Amino acid sequence: MTSSENVALVFSSVHQTLEAEDLLNSGSWPFVLIPVPPSINQGCGLAIQITCSDQQGVEAYLEQYDILPLKAVRMD
Q1: pTM of the complete model
Q2: Cα–Cα distance between 18 and 1 in angstroms, integer?
């Protein structure tokens, strides 16, 4: 997984980020909890990094639990 294939899902709060992490732990998508990249001036300081190919599925899954990312940023 190279960085250009990844996207960071930025959430509005640490609580929401950790809820998303818990939900994704029970799913089959690979992900990594990362600090929000310095170029992004939004969010709580934590983000979830996933592959771009998983983005649509992960967002749809989290939406079922009313957890929506504040922003999705492609990683360069």
Answers
A1: 0.88
A2: 23
